[in-house]
Amino acid sequence: MYPPRTRNSRQTPCEQCPLRHLPTFREFQPEELAFVSHFKTGELSVDAGTTVLSEGSHSAHLFTVLSGWGFRYKMLGDGRRQILNYIMPGDLVGLQGSLMGEMKHSVEALSALTLCVFERERLGQVYRNHPDLAFDVTWIASQEERILDEHLLSIGRRTALERAAYLLSFLSQRAAASNLFRGERVSIPLTQQHVADTLGLSIVHTNKTLKKLAERNLIRWADRGCDVLDPEGLMRAADWDGLEAVRRPFI
Amino acid sequence: MYPPRTRNSRQTPCEQCPLRHLPTFREFQPEELAFVSHFKTGELSVDAGTTVLSEGSHSAHLFTVLSGWGFRYKMLGDGRRQILNYIMPGDLVGLQGSLMGEMKHSVEALSALTLCVFERERLGQVYRNHPDLAFDVTWIASQEERILDEHLLSIGRRTALERAAYLLSFLSQRAAASNLFRGERVSIPLTQQHVADTLGLSIVHTNKTLKKLAERNLIRWADRGCDVLDPEGLMRAADWDGLEAVRRPFI
DNA sequence: CGGGCCCTTGAATTCTCTCAAACAATGTGG
DNA sequence: CCACATTGTTTGAGAGAATTCAAGGGCCCG
After folding, report:
1. Where in the numbering of this chain does the HTH crp-type domain appear (chains A, B) (predicted)?
2. What is the CA radius of gyration of chain A?
3. A241, A151, A244, A233: which is closest to A198 by C-alpha?
């Protein structure tokens, strides 16, 4: 299932996890850290473009993103694709599949992506022995739900321009929280096709919409990605309040 | 906050919960039942049209729907409304607010609605003392996420006709699972405005789209609701596989 | 140099929205 | 019982938004 350039061995011990000290994430208790470290069975690194999980499959694993970007998506029978959300460092991936068996969406790497691998079998131990971590898992699922709510509002009721403004603002805020900036630039290797498939628009119209945002000096589109020139202007254009600045749990 | 015709006293003991024996829901262990019964602090009954929870509020409660219908929605500053999902018997309501404080969406009753009330404070006990129930809470959150994924695909990538077919099919399947049919008819007091706000369409276009579905003999729209004439035809029209027939947990 | 991928642009077509009006069903007060 | 208001549905027409089709340009890489 995984392509050539894939490794699957333990590399970064949780004790040295580079994400642990980011202000976005909560602190671990030493005992929790020990458990998570035990829970982790390895790492998976894949190249950009790799499908990490696919709709219809029954994965035995649960992942946390250690580095890189990816996205979750679903497709219709004739190939129409909807990107549901983006994944970035600290995000839990594959929980739906672990809880309910079959994956109902796919996950693809947008950049080189490294994932911490957990056995879904051991998820029960989390609930039995680590109620605080179990609570965190629920928190994370609930947070994802919130974000999907906002996406749904966006696609259903925002205009094309508002939608694009919302998406770019959302991505740049998430990127900032995950420390994924390269200077002013959100370093997502995102094509306009990805943007289109997230916004529910055609690629042609997406292009024209991004151009309008650029004309208003809110963003600058450059080869596979964009600079956010005016973060507050984007939020205003989208009528969006932004992400809450809370320290979120991660596993 | 709650309007006149509202009662807030303990009425149905969990031991006699009418939902417990529906084939849709899993069985409780006696000890779980005892805990849930203790966890429940009362009931809330409201009339159709009542706002049960509102965006921006900090509710101290968590609810399970005992009877009736409702919906979750979000609004933009200028009044545009997006219905996110519908709630019906057995559904957990207000989890996001309980976990994260502020509600980011509102909940409104579509029919007379009765909710079992739980104190959010006691949610911690679930995690500390009832890992199986805690697991169920996560399962439920994850299931909601799945449904939102499908809604997102629908609004983003399905045509107006497909979207309407999906929604009506989805609602009738959920209604069937919750035993909410009145003969062949889905007894949701749903207006075309609700349909429009769910599909992300204008009410005029929604009306024309529903008419097309009716011309194809898939549905018949009648005063505040519709008959599903051809359930499989609807699913085919939407390119949708339907809900899984699993016994789901409820609390 | 050619091929592939991504971005850009114009034009015609299709979809969807707004505006406007009318109708049916229901409920209320006189 | 009727007049009237309210709510929900239906329809037509014109305006606006978004799609498809088509083609060209830039860039990187083998």
Report:
1. 158-232
2. 18
3. A151
Q: What is the pLDDT of residue A164?
A: 98
CATH label of the domain that carries residue A156? 1.10.10.10
Task: For the beta carbon of residue B217, count every other beta carbon within 10 angstroms.
Answer: 10
- Count of domains for chain B: 2
Nearest nucleotide from residue B80 CA, by C1' atom:
C17
Q: Which domain holds residue B207?
A: 149-238
Interface of B with A in 3-42 (CB under 8 A): none
B149 vs A84, A128, A199: nearest CB: A84
Q: Is the pLDDT at B1 greater than 50, yes or no?
A: no
Q: Does B78 touch chain A (CB under 8 A)?
A: yes
B chain contacts of residue A170, beta-carbon cutoff 8 Å: none
A245: in domain: no
B167 versus B180: the higher-pLDDT residue is B167
Q: How far is the CA of A210 from the C1' of D16 (A)?
A: 19
Asked if the model's pLDDT at residue A64 lies above 70, the reply is: yes
- d(CA B151, CA B199) in angstroms, rounded, equals 9
Reference A180, options A65, A93, A85, A48; nearest CA is: A65
Q: What is the DSSP letter of B25?
A: B
A to B CB pairs, distance under 8 Å? 140
> In angstroms, how far is D24 C1' from A145 CA?
43
Asked if residue B111 and residue B64 are part of one domain, the reply reads: yes
- pLDDT tens for A150-186 read 999 999 999 999 999 999 999 999 998 886 665 566 6
N- to C-terminal Cα distance for chain B?
Answer: 25
For B128-152, what is each residue's pLDDT tens digit? 999 999 999 999 999 999 999 999 9
User: Would residue B85 count as lying in a domain?
Assistant: yes
CB under 7 Å from strand D: A 159-160, 200-202, 204-206, 208-209; B 191-193, 203-204, 207-208, 210-211, 221, 223-224
Same structural domain for residues B113 and B29? Answer: yes
List B82's β-bridge partners, or say none: B74
Pick the residue of B71, B145, B243, B247 with the most A CBs within 10 A to test the interface with A by mutation: B145
- The CA distance from B191 to B167, in Å, is 13
How much of chain B, in percent, has pLDDT values that exceed 90?
Answer: 77
Q: Are residues B123 and B153 in the same domain?
A: no
- Tell me, yes or no, if A138 comes closer than 8 A to chain B by beta carbon: yes
